[in-house]
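Subject: sequence -> structure tokens, single chain

Hey, anyone have a minute? Need the predicted structure for the following. Not urgent.
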Amino acid sequence: MFNKKENSSPDVFDTLIGVNTFLEGNIETEGTVRIDGKIKGNVKVKGDVYIGKDANINGNISANNVYMSGRVDGNIEAKGVLRILSTAQLYGDILVQSLISDEGSIFEGNCKMVSASNAQNSDGSVSKNNKNVKDKDGDKSHTSA
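Reply:
Had a minute. Here:
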């Protein structure tokens, strides 16, 4: 009766947070989200996240792909591509399979890239292997989980 199409086109969004919207709380969805407003909370999406140039997110983002033009103060986990466009400002750590950063964008944080085979466990969560991580002086300072 109703056929649901799987489409990751930026013209098709399941959820839209408008430029004049302020949302305090977490968002969880299986679809694609476009954010042009302000969010104070985490965004967990099985689809893609598009962050407009006027968007301001204070929280962590977990999605398949993330395309950002606005500001994010939080960590991003993208199982696919994280595209940081020229107007974007990202202050947080990232765990991604692929990273594209345009000239003029700002990124302050740590980056960990995983291969496609290590990107997902059977339950869909991102694999985080236990390894000793060396700091810039070569000392083993902490263990990643």
